[in-house]
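agent> fetching stored inputs for the magnesium ion docking request
agent> found them:
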Amino acid sequence: MPRIVSARVIITSPGRNFVTLKIECDDGTTGVGDATLNGRELAVAAYLTEHVIPCLIGRDAHRIEDIWQYLYKGAYWRRGPVTMSAIAAVDTALWDIKGKLAGLPVYQLLGGAAREGVMVYGHANGVSIEDTVAVARDYQQQGYKAIRIQCGVPGMASTYGVSKDRYFYEPADADLPTENVWSTSKYLRVVPELFAAAREALGWDVHLLHDVHHRLTPIEAGRLGKDLEPYRPFWLEDATPAENQDGFRLIRQHTTTPLAVGEIFNSIWDAKHLIENQLIDYIRATVVHAGGITHLRRIAALADLYQVRTGCHGATDLSPVCMAAALHFDLSVPNFGVQEYMRHTPETDAVFPHAYSFADGMMHPGDAPGLGVDIDEELAAGYEYSRAFLPVNRLEDGTLWSW
Ligand SMILES: O=C(O)C(=O)C[C@H](O)[C@H](O)CO
Ligand SMILES: [Mg+2]
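agent> prediction call returned; pasting tokens
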């Protein structure tokens, strides 16, 4: 049996912060897992170092389910993003090790490929409708079959999803949280205009997506969904905060626009009511924040019963290790929908050499044994951690709002 002899947390910042767990077995086999929780990185690092790693030493690395249960039930304190990201990192690293020992890519261990490739969506954003449409056209020419479109809101200094760089969106940008201003009425006017312009320029053969980022009330979201129906969006994401899951029932009563939610979910319990009541169409939980491949498969299995499909979160704060794991999951799961793909910077790609590839709007995890991703520790050591917070959001009168 491959016995775990060491586990280490590696923190690096090649343009942004990443936390990676590396587990090593007595035969020298290693596995990696992403443990990055944007803006709260050191909390997960400490949880791993102080409370998880000591319990791993000496265990059989093949016993993925037992170790998952040990860390989840055994902690007594269940769920939560810090705990579940730490468990995810261990779980991901163990799947990596199992794949390497079997000489197989992880997707083969998960049942094999259920499709030829993984459809991904890219991010088109711009300060104006024209800018966004121009970037979206660029993505379409690169072969993307699905594109998320976000544009600046006239009269507002900054808007979620609209970055300084056309291709790299990085919201965690300051040593203390940046303050953004939000106006629902201004926003609700511009989004249907954006979709109209995008359909006009791009035609109907490309999927268009949009992220509301938890900023509307259910009835406002119902209005937006209805206004967008003529443009056939693929999904409306995080239309309203999901703590009150019944809020989605109200949205559903007013629109047939498909709904996606779950990037901040960390367990099946966050999604259970939404899935069982068919209040959503896509579940966006992903490997790093929702307990690893093991737990994500459980969520997907529940979702499959209700024709809810997967749409894993894949922003740049999820490291290439998470991206690789998500692609193995996506390729094998029966109810796959789409995968978010926000390209990492060249510095990040160099620190995390990987076997996954993009061609013609589709990705593939590659056929290297395990996850097909690693961390170049020497390179990683050259990028020191630097604290960065996600922004906060306020209404024009100063009221704190959802970001
Ligand atoms: O990628 C998305 O859909 C996001 O909403 C990005 C998030 O704001 C980001 O990952 C937060 O860390
Ligand atoms: Mg989102």
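agent> quick read of the result: The mean pLDDT is 97.
agent> awaiting further instructions
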